[in-house]
Amino acid sequence: DNTFGFYGCATSKTHRAINYPVILSGGKNLGFRHGSHLHFGDNIPMSNLFVTIANQFGRPTDAFADSTGDITEVLG
After folding, report:
1. Which of 8, 44, 59, 65 has the most CB atoms less than 10 A away?
2. Residues 17-39: pLDDT tens digits?
């Protein structure tokens, strides 16, 4: 499956992108892992997820906003 869905909520009084619920679906042929629930600490910026998605879509990206790297746990 090359279809990928991203759904998330980004509401915060402090405008810090931490602890947001996000759903990733599809994209098995793109290397995304299915059937899991992951929790990351507050020190992992959401922009790391955007870097990972861009890299899996064939758009090599080292950084985006305040990213610190990839989130390899979403890959299978």
Report:
1. 44
2. 667 888 999 888 999 998 899 99
